Amino acid sequence: MKLIVMVMTMMMISEGSMIDQTCKQTPDFKLCVSLLNSDPRGSSADISGLALILIDKIKVLATKTLTEINGLYKKRPELKQALDQCSRRYKTILNADVPEAIEAISKGVPKFGEDGVIDAGVEASVCEEGFQGKSPLTSLTKSMQNISSVTRAVVRMLL
Ligand SMILES: *[C@@H]1O[C@H](CO)[C@@H](O)[C@H](O)[C@H]1NC(C)=O
Q1: What is the pLDDT of residue 5?
Q2: What's the pTM value of the predicted model, to 2 decimals?
Protein backbone atom coordinates (compact mmCIF):
# COMPACT_ATOMS: atom_id res chain seq x y z
CA MET A 1 0.00 0.00 0.00
CA LYS A 2 2.71 2.46 0.98
CA LEU A 3 4.64 1.52 -2.12
CA ILE A 4 1.64 2.26 -4.34
CA VAL A 5 1.25 5.70 -2.77
CA MET A 6 4.95 6.35 -3.31
CA VAL A 7 4.85 5.30 -6.94
CA MET A 8 1.75 7.39 -7.57
CA THR A 9 3.38 10.40 -5.93
CA MET A 10 6.45 9.94 -8.08
CA MET A 11 4.31 9.71 -11.18
CA MET A 12 2.51 12.92 -10.27
CA ILE A 13 5.81 14.70 -9.70
CA SER A 14 7.16 13.56 -13.04
CA GLU A 15 3.92 14.57 -14.76
CA GLY A 16 4.10 18.01 -13.19
CA SER A 17 7.64 18.48 -14.36
CA MET A 18 6.62 17.46 -17.88
CA ILE A 19 4.69 20.74 -18.16
CA ASP A 20 7.51 22.62 -16.44
CA GLN A 21 10.23 21.15 -18.61
CA THR A 22 8.27 21.72 -21.79
CA CYS A 23 7.36 25.28 -20.86
CA LYS A 24 10.99 26.14 -19.99
CA GLN A 25 11.75 25.75 -23.66
CA THR A 26 9.15 28.32 -24.73
CA PRO A 27 9.47 32.12 -24.84
CA ASP A 28 6.86 32.61 -22.07
CA PHE A 29 7.15 30.08 -19.25
CA LYS A 30 4.39 31.59 -17.08
CA LEU A 31 1.83 31.82 -19.86
CA CYS A 32 2.66 28.30 -21.01
CA VAL A 33 2.28 26.80 -17.52
CA SER A 34 -0.94 28.65 -16.80
CA LEU A 35 -2.51 27.57 -20.11
CA LEU A 36 -1.53 23.93 -19.64
CA ASN A 37 -2.46 23.74 -15.97
CA SER A 38 -5.92 25.10 -16.74
CA ASP A 39 -6.70 22.00 -18.82
CA PRO A 40 -7.46 18.72 -17.03
CA ARG A 41 -5.69 16.79 -19.80
CA GLY A 42 -2.44 18.68 -19.17
CA SER A 43 -1.18 16.65 -16.24
CA SER A 44 -1.06 13.38 -18.17
CA ALA A 45 -0.27 14.60 -21.68
CA ASP A 46 2.88 13.94 -23.68
CA ILE A 47 4.40 16.75 -25.74
CA SER A 48 2.08 16.27 -28.67
CA GLY A 49 -0.84 16.25 -26.21
CA LEU A 50 0.42 19.50 -24.72
CA ALA A 51 0.68 20.99 -28.22
CA LEU A 52 -2.94 19.98 -28.90
CA ILE A 53 -4.10 21.64 -25.68
CA LEU A 54 -2.33 24.87 -26.67
CA ILE A 55 -3.89 24.76 -30.14
CA ASP A 56 -7.24 24.42 -28.41
CA LYS A 57 -6.40 27.62 -26.49
CA ILE A 58 -5.74 29.35 -29.82
CA LYS A 59 -9.19 28.22 -30.93
CA VAL A 60 -10.86 29.51 -27.74
CA LEU A 61 -9.11 32.87 -28.01
CA ALA A 62 -9.94 33.22 -31.72
CA THR A 63 -13.61 32.47 -30.99
CA LYS A 64 -13.63 35.04 -28.20
CA THR A 65 -11.95 37.64 -30.43
CA LEU A 66 -14.44 37.03 -33.22
CA THR A 67 -17.30 37.61 -30.78
CA GLU A 68 -15.63 40.85 -29.72
CA ILE A 69 -15.24 41.89 -33.37
CA ASN A 70 -18.92 41.20 -34.05
CA GLY A 71 -19.89 43.38 -31.09
CA LEU A 72 -17.71 46.24 -32.31
CA TYR A 73 -19.65 46.71 -35.55
CA LYS A 74 -22.42 48.48 -33.64
CA LYS A 75 -20.22 50.36 -31.20
CA ARG A 76 -17.63 51.50 -33.74
CA PRO A 77 -19.27 51.60 -37.20
CA GLU A 78 -16.45 53.81 -38.49
CA LEU A 79 -14.12 50.83 -38.13
CA LYS A 80 -16.16 48.61 -40.43
CA GLN A 81 -13.45 48.10 -43.02
CA ALA A 82 -10.83 47.04 -40.49
CA LEU A 83 -13.36 44.88 -38.66
CA ASP A 84 -14.27 43.10 -41.91
CA GLN A 85 -10.63 42.33 -42.45
CA CYS A 86 -10.22 41.08 -38.87
CA SER A 87 -13.31 38.96 -39.17
CA ARG A 88 -11.79 37.24 -42.22
CA ARG A 89 -8.45 36.82 -40.47
CA TYR A 90 -9.93 35.20 -37.39
CA LYS A 91 -12.14 32.95 -39.50
CA THR A 92 -8.97 31.80 -41.24
CA ILE A 93 -7.50 30.93 -37.85
CA LEU A 94 -10.63 28.97 -36.90
CA ASN A 95 -11.42 27.33 -40.22
CA ALA A 96 -7.94 26.69 -41.61
CA ASP A 97 -5.02 27.19 -39.18
CA VAL A 98 -6.47 25.37 -36.17
CA PRO A 99 -7.89 22.31 -37.97
CA GLU A 100 -4.73 22.04 -40.07
CA ALA A 101 -2.51 22.13 -36.98
CA ILE A 102 -4.68 19.61 -35.09
CA GLU A 103 -4.69 17.22 -38.03
CA ALA A 104 -0.95 17.48 -38.61
CA ILE A 105 -0.07 16.83 -34.98
CA SER A 106 -2.61 14.05 -34.58
CA LYS A 107 -1.20 12.36 -37.67
CA GLY A 108 2.39 12.79 -36.52
CA VAL A 109 3.49 15.31 -39.15
CA PRO A 110 4.21 18.31 -36.87
CA LYS A 111 5.99 20.29 -39.58
CA PHE A 112 2.62 21.14 -41.11
CA GLY A 113 1.25 21.87 -37.66
CA GLU A 114 3.88 24.51 -37.15
CA ASP A 115 2.72 26.43 -40.22
CA GLY A 116 -0.85 26.78 -38.94
CA VAL A 117 0.32 27.85 -35.49
CA ILE A 118 2.68 30.49 -36.91
CA ASP A 119 -0.07 31.73 -39.20
CA ALA A 120 -2.45 32.33 -36.26
CA GLY A 121 0.00 34.94 -34.92
CA VAL A 122 0.44 36.45 -38.37
CA GLU A 123 -3.31 36.75 -38.95
CA ALA A 124 -3.70 38.52 -35.59
CA SER A 125 -0.94 40.98 -36.52
CA VAL A 126 -2.47 41.74 -39.91
CA CYS A 127 -5.84 42.39 -38.22
CA GLU A 128 -4.18 44.75 -35.73
CA GLU A 129 -2.38 46.73 -38.45
CA GLY A 130 -5.67 47.39 -40.24
CA PHE A 131 -6.63 49.83 -37.46
CA GLN A 132 -3.55 51.97 -38.10
CA GLY A 133 -2.62 52.47 -34.49
CA LYS A 134 -6.17 52.81 -33.12
CA SER A 135 -7.02 49.20 -32.55
CA PRO A 136 -9.70 48.26 -30.02
CA LEU A 137 -8.30 44.72 -30.11
CA THR A 138 -4.68 45.30 -29.07
CA SER A 139 -4.77 43.21 -25.93
CA LEU A 140 -6.46 40.28 -27.71
CA THR A 141 -3.94 40.60 -30.54
CA LYS A 142 -1.04 40.41 -28.09
CA SER A 143 -2.59 37.40 -26.38
CA MET A 144 -2.85 35.62 -29.71
CA GLN A 145 0.73 36.50 -30.64
CA ASN A 146 1.92 35.24 -27.26
CA ILE A 147 -0.04 31.98 -27.39
CA SER A 148 1.07 31.43 -30.96
CA SER A 149 4.75 31.79 -30.11
CA VAL A 150 4.49 29.53 -27.04
CA THR A 151 2.59 26.91 -29.07
CA ARG A 152 5.09 27.11 -31.90
CA ALA A 153 7.95 26.39 -29.51
CA VAL A 154 6.14 23.30 -28.19
CA VAL A 155 5.31 22.07 -31.71
CA ARG A 156 8.98 22.48 -32.68
CA MET A 157 9.93 20.04 -29.92
CA LEU A 158 8.07 17.40 -31.94
CA LEU A 159 10.11 17.99 -35.12
C1 LIG B 1 2.65 39.10 -24.26
O2 LIG B 1 4.01 38.87 -24.01
C3 LIG B 1 4.74 40.05 -23.71
C4 LIG B 1 6.22 39.69 -23.65
O5 LIG B 1 6.42 38.56 -22.85
C6 LIG B 1 4.21 40.63 -22.41
O7 LIG B 1 4.91 41.80 -22.08
C8 LIG B 1 2.73 40.95 -22.58
O9 LIG B 1 2.20 41.38 -21.34
C10 LIG B 1 1.95 39.76 -23.06
N11 LIG B 1 0.64 40.23 -23.41
C12 LIG B 1 -0.46 39.52 -23.23
C13 LIG B 1 -1.75 40.19 -23.52
O14 LIG B 1 -0.46 38.36 -22.86
Answers
A1: 73
A2: 0.90
